[in-house]
């Protein structure tokens, strides 16, 4: 301020010079008078009226860098600062090889929905984790976990004089992007420096299954280990796809469109890249050949843009990228439903454990001696009418029920109650490397088998692992 009019007694309205923020995010604006201490003010002894704060924050679009020690960075457990070649000259380190008690978190809020490149930097050193687990969240939802080799220098473009490596491209809808690294990796130390969230441009393209005749369909029936394809017709609206993209295919014995497809059977992916297939309009075609390793009645699912190849115009609320087959595909042959599969469900309190005797390496346990209100349920759909052997697996242990109670239903009709001695190794043929024991044989006419295990067995624990069904 130097013009005589601006130095006179009175109120002075005006505008600052043009300013620019180098980093995205949400900011408070502050202004300080006599910032250069040009002279001694009359209230110099107690000058508390020189700073003004704008009542409204300003949101800056563009890449956001969150560094250790800045707003948006937080820790749990024991971390220590080291001054090395790092973003802003320092980073934090903690002991690795732990249980996850030491975590560092970088978070940015107020972000527009869409696709972001998530990048990180660290100062490489030979005694650090080669598999530091960076978990990426959209709000509270874990999107993916990326193992980072902190013994190697990050590979990528530099910002603030240090290189950042791309961890993933993720699509977010909550406005909050969060990355956490824990100390469960190998090596002596895990380090936490800066993370960069860079928005990728929004395209005018919407991929969808919304036009008349769109959708997917598979064969009505197929044998295990026999290849089959899925017919699919998708639509590109708005503008031609700006790059190739992928379609991912899944199968599930549950037809629930809201299910977690990461628990379903992943069949495979295809990449759509021919110019004609990327143009605006309807596109009919056929998936690559897939095959089933497990029997049962499956609903097929297809997800457009499965690898987030570009930001769609409907990224803020993209609900039209999922297609379901209307007809089940019946797969002949033995069926296995494991704990955690789409048609496995629980009531009450169950806990996971790693167990070498369990199918898939883990099972679930609950306290025995209960009322029967804590249950584990396996459902098999798509069974042709006939007689089936009902088999179960469990990792044996002396403190488990000798009379674990399994209730067997044809559809919703209870047909039999049987028990199993879970202190003993299951006696029967193996599948997936573990033995299964035949509980009983039943006739199924409804197409659907349901088996319910409850906590009313004796001893300390009841175990829920896999169910196997064969004709
Ligand atoms: Ca830093
Ligand atoms: Ca879409
Ligand atoms: Ca299991």
Query: How many angstroms separate the termini?
Result: 90 Å
Chain-averaged pLDDT: 95
CATH superfamily of the largest domain: Galactose-binding domain-like
Fraction of helical residues: under 10%
Number of E strands: 42
- Write down the domain tally: 4
Q: What's the CATH class of the largest domain, please?
A: Mainly Beta
Major β-sheet, in short?
Answer: 6 strands, mixed
What is the count of helical runs? Answer: 2
- Distinct ligands: calcium ion
CATH topology call of the largest domain: Jelly Rolls
Q: Radius of gyration from the CA trace?
A: 29 Å
The CATH architecture assignment of the largest domain turns out to be Sandwich
What structural class do helix, strand and pairing data support?
mainly beta
Shape: globular
Name the beta content range: 35-45%
Low-confidence stretches: none
Question: How is this structure best summarized?
Answer:
The chain is an all-beta fold and 471 residues long.
What can you tell me about this protein's structure?
By secondary structure, the chain is mainly β. It has four domains: 19-60, no CATH class; 64-199, Galactose-binding domain-like (Jelly Rolls, Sandwich); 206-333, Immunoglobulins (Immunoglobulin-like, Sandwich); 336-470, Sandwich (Jelly Rolls), CATH 2.60.120.260. It is built from two helices and 42 strands. Strands 21, 23, 24, 26, 27 and 28 form a six-stranded mixed β-sheet that branches. The longest helix is centred in the first third of the chain and has 4 residues, at 4-7. Bound molecules: calcium ion (3 copies). One calcium ion is lined by residues 67-68, 86-88, 90-91, 193-194.
